[in-house]
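Bench notes, afternoon.
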Amino acid sequence: MSRFLITCGGTGGHLAPGIALAEGLVARGHEAKLLISDKKVDARMIEKYGAFTFLPVPGTPFGWSPRTLLWCAVTQPLGILFCLRLARSWRPDVIVGFGGFTSAPAVLAGKMLGIPVALHEANRVPGRAIRKLGRFARRVYLPPGVQLDSVAPEAIRHLGLPVRREVTRRDQTAARLALKLDPGRPVLAILGGSQGAAPLNAWVRQRLTAFAAAGVQIYCVTGMDKGWDGATVAKSEGAETRMTFVSFSDRIPEVMAAADLVVTRAGAGTLAELVRCGTPAVLVPFPHAADDHQAANAAYFAEQGGGLVVPESSLADLERVVLRVLGDSRQRDAFRANLRRMDEEDNLGSLLRDLEDVIVGGGRKAVPAVA
């Protein structure tokens, strides 16, 4: 049995694959602890995973504004001290980071103590944390076809993002009934990622009557602090259609199963779950994402045939595109067939086996135990 310290907090896109990895490790007889942030989204996501140990690590995101930069400079050393103490007392065999500001303290602590480090980057444009910390890693996992010049070629492995055990294809009728939706009417889901997407929220609220006229039900996850929870009924020529808004959902597999189509941002975690659930999507990449990585994610998803892309600058065209796809069952079936093909790789299994190889490879220094 080996011990794995997984650093994965800050956003749902980092935390979800960390939980997926922990599930796989524990199933193979290993131990895992997960480092998260003190953000509200982390606290909400971990509520249903009481079997795991989650530890908030000090630290705040990097940013160029004077206040953000100063606070990052103050809190990151605290995070490093926290991770050094934890690593000395718990003595993990491998530290695994999924990027974001919580990864740096753990990776640097691992480097100082000679503990092997592995980093996983799910976006098709590697983030700042992976670019800067990759040189310290024994393994860097990148999406297929993506390279990183700052990392030694022998350290790179290509594989996709692991998804949680609960994220599976489900019966559409059962999912709709569970979400209190009419199983006989089409469903459009709106997802803005764990942070929500105000432009998508506003877009759909302005078009409730139009979707009611088309008989389309809406299920919108607005994001914490960006919307409201509740259901409303939109009317068009006497017809009533249920429109549901929730600020947070821990039932995303059911939402994706219930939907005929999803309109969403293009974070890597969301795309991996769409692939696993086999749900077609129209992607609206967040235009201010670091290094425009969501545009790259969306372009690859569309090239593989999983859906379409509409830039946020073209939101005026989104309604037309959505209604066209909802009205074309043959196109949706083609998308689903491509998604099944995209889901053939066993990303979690490959990751687990390679991490075990890192331990077998040895080469780490002894970590002094804390008395």
